[in-house]
Design goal:
Largest sheet of chain B: 8 strands, antiparallel
Shape of chain A: globular
Largest sheet of chain A: 7 strands, parallel
Number of strands of chain A: 7
Largest interface: A-B, 20 and 29 residues
CATH class of the domain at 64-176 in chain B: Alpha Beta
Distance between the termini of chain B: 27 Å
Distance between the termini of chain A: 41 Å
Low-confidence stretches of chain B: none
Strand order of the largest sheet of chain A: 3-2-1-4-5-6-7
CATH superfamily of chain A: NAD(P)-binding Rossmann-like Domain
Radius of gyration of chain B: 21 Å
Mean pLDDT of chain A: 89
Low-confidence stretches of chain A: 45-60
Helix content of chain B: 25-40%
Structural class of chain B: alpha+beta
Strand order of the largest sheet of chain B: 16-12-14-13-19-20-18-21
CATH topology of chain A: Rossmann fold
CATH topology of the domain at 64-176 in chain B: Uridine Diphospho-n-acetylenolpyruvylglucosamine Reductase, domain 3
CATH architecture of the domain at 64-176 in chain B: 2-Layer Sandwich
Helix content of chain A: 40-55%
Shape of chain B: globular
Oligomer: heterodimer
Order of helices and strands of chain A: EHEHEHEHHEHEHEHH
């Protein structure tokens, strides 16, 4: 549990290959977290390697290597299998994590796929799957997390939202609409957990320069996974409110306060 | 009723169901019906950290267990009786508690569970050493009577409430001839002089303690004010301590900062005589901070951390190094207290061991505090010392085994008394006890 100085001991990362998620975990371990559970699709020895490492997917470097790196920092690391699209298995992921490390101080709901709007236009079924991952699966995972954290009376669910959901843009409205749904869900969940001791932290990065956006030209106010992680960890340590939000970089908050008010006729002309 | 609880440091609140048993029967029933998240007893909430918190579980407010009797120098008290109540009644009759910590507002159960020490530790050891028998309510609601020879007794003294609830205890008091203290005050110029004066002169006094200035730099680092004394042979026996002022309910953060604490330390040092003998009341001598009700609120909404460690005699270099680091970094610490410990009480998780102990209050918001204290933990453990669990709110579990060599033995005894691990606190979870 969070100690008097805001350091945590245990972390569950759902989407154990997420660049931002892993960066958060690394920072938390450096600050004292001693036990980590990485919930990964195709965990080693449990399925084919790298089955989903196609373009636009988050999958990439091996989770074993990642676990090794975290162990090197002094943490005890466990890897459990996790399939976002199989909600029936989500309970077992949480049960396993609690069995392995006890109370969950931080749960990071960090999985997701970006994809391109053009590809989704051509393949509506793929669009539906992407929305299921980016939104539907987070609903299932978030509700499981809420149940565990509420019973514990402490712990924070970190939801990786996006400015793409703050106001959905024509250029990526499938992804953006899923993030908008996720953001709304996370806000509601934070309110539902008010008074329970558990918290929800919504992280809204802008364009993040990383594996997920490889080949795309960075947008204004972009950031790196490291910057997102630093902002997240700071909010985790200092925050006491039940429902908190961080924009990365911070300027995106006021920027979207204004952009939300832009007339549709102008907004739909946004180049990206 | 679900309530958010913190320790005296007011950090890291967690919710728990709070129940207040009024007698042994109710206590036993509540323990027997402990929920899956477990149960832990709580007294007056003076442990600084998370010892009497149990996130998502049950916390037993023991202050309703308030019966006590006194006979021939011996008190038999329910776990929830406060030392304040005992002193108020016993001092006018010529008796004093065997050990008094820096506040009167602790319960008998808490004093045993934390095996508290006082200014007489170098002569009289800690509270647990004076306990003759215990009534403990263990997992399942079983009521057991324990003598000091029982392993479970030794696991309960200093056991942080994790072996069961102390329903009742019998302990010896000490006779006193007045409620006055005859106190020698002495100012020292630096840390070496403070330590030398304590090492050479402590044995002449029943009670000794030194306040040292950790914000002073250079040659004056560790300058201090030694106060050492004993119960006066003559004088009034009246004892009716009062609260002088009350801290505001909502003090803003940052009041106790580098500037204000430095100024306070300077004034505190200057106001002390170079050398003098004075007569003081019990309350100003033992419990100066009890005069300010809710003084812990002065640290503002983020609260504070108390760090208290002990290193064995011979490891003075570790103490000097920690003091030097605190001074060099300008870490704000309010009224740090230095004390020499004597032999321990035999409690398996008891804090005191023969050596030097330093206690400091630090505002929780200071930058880099976590890493700094973590570094101190390692130095202390390497020197064969330990950190006081009743004050801890931030240590990591990996330090425990090295600091507390009897931990494995304690665990075996605890597991036997509580196989399902129903006695649990936030501290127990954090430190993997």
């Amino acid at each position: 549990m969070k100690n008097s100085l805001g350091a945590v001991d245990t972390v569950l990362l759902l989407g154990g290959r997420s660049e931002i998620g892993l960066e958060i975990v690394r920072l938390l371990v450096r600050l004292g977290a001693s036990r980590v559970v990485l919930a990964v699709r195709d965990a080693p020895g449990l399925g084919g390697p790298g089955a989903g490492s196609g373009p636009g997917s988050e999958a990439g470097s091996g989770s074993e290597a990642e676990a090794g790196r975290l162990s090197g920092l002094g943490a005890e690391v466990h890897v459990v299998p996790f399939d976002a699209l199989d909600p029936g298995s989500h309970q077992e992921v949480f049960d396993a994590a609690v069995r392995l490390v006890g109370d969950l101080d931080v749960v990071i709901s960090g999985f997701g796929v970006l994809g391109s709007q053009a590809a989704y236009d051509a393949d509506p079924a793929a669009a539906m799957t992407a929305v299921a991952v980016n939104y539907g699966a987070h609903v299932s995972v978030g509700l499981h997390a809420a149940r565990v954290l509420r019973a514990q009376g402490h712990g924070t669910l970190v939801v990786l939202s996006s400015v793409a959901g703050a106001r959905v843009r024509r250029a990526n409205f499938v992804y953006g609409s899923a993030k908008a749904g996720l953001d709304g869900f996370a806000q509601g969940l934070g309110d539902a957990l008010h008074g329970s001791g558990a918290r929800v932290l919504i992280v809204r990065p802008g364009f993040v320069i990383g594996r997920m956006t490889e080949g795309l030209t960075p947008a204004p106010l972009s950031s790196t996974p490291r910057q997102v992680a630093v902002a997240t960890v700071r909010a985790l340590r200092d925050g006491t409110r039940t429902s908190a939000e961080v924009w990365v970089p911070r300027a995106l908050g006021p920027a979207f306060g204004v952009l939300r008010l832009l007339p549709r006729a102008l907004w739909r002309r946004m180049p990206r | 009723m679900t309530t958010f609880l913190t320790g005296w440091g007011r950090t890291a609140p967690t919710p728990a169901t709070l129940a207040r048993p009024r007698d042994l029967g109710e206590l036993s029933e509540l323990v027997a019906a402990a929920p899956v998240r477990g149960v832990v007893p709580r007294g007056l909430g003076r442990a600084y950290g998370d010892a009497a918190q149990n996130s998502g579980g049950l916390v037993l407010d023991c202050t309703g267990l308030d019966k006590w009797t006194f006979d021939d120098g011996r008190v038999t008290a329910s776990g929830g009786v406060s030392l304040h109540e005992l002193m108020t009644a016993l001092v006018p009759r010529g008796w004093f508690v065997p050990v008094s910590p820096g506040t009167r507002h602790v319960t008998v159960g808490g004093a045993i569970a934390a095996d508290v020490h006082g200014k007489n530790h170098h002569r009289d050891s800690s509270f647990g050493a004076h306990v003759r028998s215990l009534t403990l309510v263990t997992a399942g609601g079983t009521v057991r009577t324990l003598s000091p020879a029982d392993p479970l007794f030794q696991a309960t003294v200093g056991g942080m409430g994790l072996t069961g609830v102390i329903a009742e205890a019998t302990f010896d008091c000490v006779p006193v001839e007045s409620s006055r203290m005859l106190v020698d005050i002495e100012r020292t110029a630096d840390l070496d002089e403070t330590m030398a004066a304590m090492a050479s002169g402590d044995d002449r006094y029943r009670y000794t303690v030194a306040w040292i200035d950790l914000l002073a730099r250079g040659r004056r680092l560790g300058r201090g004010v030694l106060t050492r004394g004993d119960h006066a042979r003559r004088g009034t026996s009246d004892f009716a301590p009062r609260t002088l002022v009350r801290a505001p309910a909502r003090a803003p953060g940052g009041l106790l900062n580098g500037l204000s604490v430095r100024a306070f330390n300077e004034a505190w040092y200057r106001k002390a005589p170079r050398r003098a003998t004075v007569v003081q009341g019990i309350a100003p001598f033992f419990h100066p901070l009890d005069a300010v009700e809710g003084w812990n609120r002065m640290y503002g909404p983020r609260g504070f951390v108390q760090y208290q460690f002990v290193v064995p005699f011979g490891a003075e270099e570790t103490l000097r190094r920690i003091v030097g680091t605190l001074s060099a970094r300008g870490t704000v610490s309010f009224v740090p207290v230095l004390k020499r410990f004597g032999p321990g009480s035999g409690g398996l998780l008891s804090f005191p061991l023969p050596g030097w102990t330093l206690a400091l209050d630090v505002p929780a918001g200071q930058r880099g505090l976590g890493e700094l204290l973590r570094g101190f933990d390692e130095l202390v453990a390497r020197a064969g010392g330990r950190v006081y669990l009743a004050k801890d709110s931030r240590m990591r579990s990996d330090m425990m085994a090295e600091m507390y060599p009897s931990l494995q033995r304690w665990r075996r005894i605890r597991d036997e008394a509580d196989p399902a691990g129903l006695f649990r606190s936030d501290l127990a979870r954090r430190l993997g006890l």
